[in-house]
Amino acid sequence: MQTEHWEFLKNQSENVPLLITTALGTIAAGFAIHFARRTVTIQRGEPPLFPGALPLLGHVIRYGKDANKVYQEASEWSKDKAPVSLSLAGKRLYVILSQKDVLAVWRAKTLAFDSVCEWGMVSLFGMTAHGAKQMHDDPDGKGDMYVNQHRFWRDALGPGEDLNLITHRFLEYLEVNIEEFEKTLPKDNSGVEVDLFTWTRDRIGISATNAIAGPNLLKLDPKIMEKLTKWESEFFLLALGLPRWALKGPRENLEDMIKTWMKLGVSPDMLPPLIERTHLVIAREASDWDVAASNLSLWLGTQANANPSAFWVIYQILLLPADMRARVEAEIAPAFDPATNRLTDLNHLINNTPLLTSIYWEVLRLTAGSASVREVEEDTMIGGYRFCKGAMVMIPLRLQHLNEDVFGDDVDTFVPDRFLRNASELEGNKKNPGIKVLKPFGGGTSLCPGRHFAINEIFAYVATVLRKFDMELPPGQEVAGLRTSVPSVGTLPPDRDVRVRVRMRKYE
Ligand code: HEM
Ligand SMILES: *[C@@H]1O[C@H](CO)[C@@H](O)[C@H](O)[C@H]1NC(C)=O
Ligand SMILES: *[C@@H]1O[C@H](CO)[C@@H](O)[C@H](O)[C@H]1NC(C)=O
Fold first, then answer.
1. CA of 395, closest atom in ligand 1
2. What pLDDT score was predicted for residue 33?
3. In whole angstroms, what is the distance from residue 60 CA to residue 489 CA?
4. 257: Cα within 13 Å, side-chain hemisphere
């Protein structure tokens, strides 16, 4: 599949540099290719150039085939995990490898995120270039929208009224969603077999969509969840910024979704901060199309990582040995009304379920595939090296999660109770560094503001389906792993379909 895409690009693209990235950093790579400063030689003080750069192309082919692997190799090659320079068809990219440098990059004011956002609005979310520029205007004294957005979302989705509202709405929609599914089950309780990835998306994703956009969105286009999945899988093509004709399918899919959002128009059921945000876009005289693209981008952001993360959490629980699975079920039980099996105590789920919580963070450790990206606005010193103006900085977050020095010799294994283990009782080179070292939500100005809601929705979904249903993996089905060879938006998808038989659960 990967080779096919590769061939496709090689034959079709004209003046577009060839590049396919794997999961890590698709956005960044696309951006770098289009905007990063052209440099051929390493300047004085810049991080050392990773060996093997070809004339003109630099590392672009290796990087294009498997960016993940290039990061791994760079990490092994670099002394003391100092930053490394890559050359992508003459464009400079610095890869950050040590935790200390990650934090320094997130702190540095001269390493900016806004230009990456502006580019993404156009390439990934379908805004017109003119519309994306208009977001810089300041007709109402509320500032440049790229600059103020981080604080805006931090306030809107941080602990408080709006977070409570969206969570409350989500829980109501989830309950209805699950009830509707129950009605489709056969009366003899033989259950149905489902594809766990899609099934999860249609429970948690639809409930979150209704909570955020109001229920009309799915009424206008009942197929929009499928379009979401299609967008996720074609995301990297959009990121490459191929000529329009080469992007026909992905663009049509994207434009279909924008049109649905245009039809939705003003909806009082939308989440208040989303409405407020839209008024800012409208005040900047954006066209209806661009307002809809902006609305769409916010919705996609709420879906892209949360749904696959929820899939991984429930799947890993289904794979647990029986005694551990029983521990999770005992932990969540007090959150439910025993008579009706309704979820009545979300606080209990979030605060009093040590094993479920450890599993959640262990899932994010291994499956969060995003890269944090910055553009160098002024020459900046990081880790003793000079980062030159115009270059791109890339932090592959997952690399930090696979560091044996931090996580010990079982770093590559899924360990459900990793974050509960008593460090002083562990044998060999096993560790428990705590969840603070994990960075699945990025950091600095662009730290994910949705992380509080993500925990609420994922815990609620997982606990509810565990409580309500008997979920059984068919015997003989191979265990799915992470698909790292194909680009993803963020959270890595499974490398094969996962089938599950779902039945109502009977309690004595
Ligand atoms: C497990 C689920 C999630 C993961 C792993 C995740 C991860 C991320 C990451 C890595 C970033 C970029 C950070 C950076 O560049 O440094 C981000 C940004 C963002 N996320 Fe999430 N996210 C999740 C769920 C959500 C949810 C549920 C929402 C909304 C309700 C959301 C809203 C956003 C927004 C608005 C941004 C842009 C922030 C900004 O530019 O200031 N995310 N997320
Ligand atoms: C986007 O959402 C806002 C908030 O509900 C709404 O007022 C606006 O009409 C929407 N715009 C488009 C073009 O869909
Ligand atoms: C961890 O193990 C040590 C040694 O057995 C013990 O003294 C300590 O109380 C344990 N800590 C916790 C938090 O259980």
1. 16
2. 56
3. 20
4. 27
* Residue-level pLDDT at 57: 66
DSSP 8-state code for residue 471: E
Q: 145-157 and 114-123 helices cross at what angle (nearest 10)?
A: 90
pTM: 0.88
CA-to-CA dists, residue 104 to 110, 384, 443, angstroms: 11, 11, 11
Enter the tokens of residue 447. 């730290």
Residues with Cβ within 8 Å of residue 176, at least 6 apart in sequence: none
Distance 309 CA to ligand 2 centre (A): 28
- 17 with 364: CB under 8 angstroms? no
- Best residue for ligand 1 mutational test, from 105, 302, 363, 448 (most atoms within 8 Å of Cβ): 448
388 is in an annotated binding site: no
List alpha helices for 346-386, DSSP H.
346-351, 354-367
pLDDT of residue 6: 28
**Per-block mean pLDDT, blocks of 10 residues, the chain (508 long):** 29 29 44 56 87 72 71 89 84 90 96 82 83 80 75 83 93 97 95 97 97 92 94 78 76 93 80 75 78 86 93 97 97 95 96 98 93 90 94 89 93 95 90 95 90 97 97 94 75 93 90
Give me the pLDDT at residue 39, please.
Answer: 57
Q: Which two tokens stand for residue 172?
A: 């109501």
Ligand having the closest approach to the CA of 422: 3
Does ligand 1 lie within 6 Å of residue 361's CB atom?
A: no
CB 85 within 8 A of CB 50: yes
CA of 419 to the centre of ligand 3 (A): 14
Are 449 and 158 in contact, with CB atoms under 8 Å apart? yes
Q: What pLDDT is recorded for position 64?
A: 65
Torsion of the alpha carbons at 91, 92, 97 and 102, rounded to the nearest 10: -110
Residue of 135, 441, 457 best suited for mutating to test ligand 1, as the one with most atoms within 8 Å of CB:
441
State the ligand closest to the CA atom of 454.
1
| CB of 446 shorter than 6 A to ligand 1 | yes
- Residue 423 CA to ligand 3 center (angstroms) comes to 8
DSSP-assigned letter for residue 246: G
Whether 366 contacts 482, CB under 8 Å:
yes
